[in-house]
Write a structure and sequence with these properties.
single chain; globular; alpha+beta; 74 residues; binds zinc ion; 3-stranded antiparallel β-sheet
Length: 74
């Protein structure tokens, strides 16, 4: 059975939740959108675990295009 790629894993979510709320809010509101040409808010995002980072993939709040943001782990 394969797991859909866009589903947030429990572990990734735990790591995400470990980040202070204030900082998380800042991260989701400061995602670069190539279409809008600047910082936008990411919506409908899922969280994926990479080797040394978390990867947020979702949509731009302004234009609805796919955007992503890497959150590096300490
Ligand atoms: Zn956009």
């Amino acid at each position: 059975m394969s797991r859909p790629e866009n589903v947030t894993s429990f572990k990734a979510l735990q790591q995400w939740k470990a980040i202070p709320q204030q900082y998380r809010d800042k991260l989701v509101r400061n995602v670069f959108c190539g279409n809008c040409g600047g910082a936008v808010e990411i919506i409908d995002y899922s969280i994926k675990e990479e080797k040394y980072a978390l990867l947020l993939t979702g949509k731009c709040r302004t234009c609805g295009r796919p955007v992503a943001r890497v959150v590096e782990n300490e």
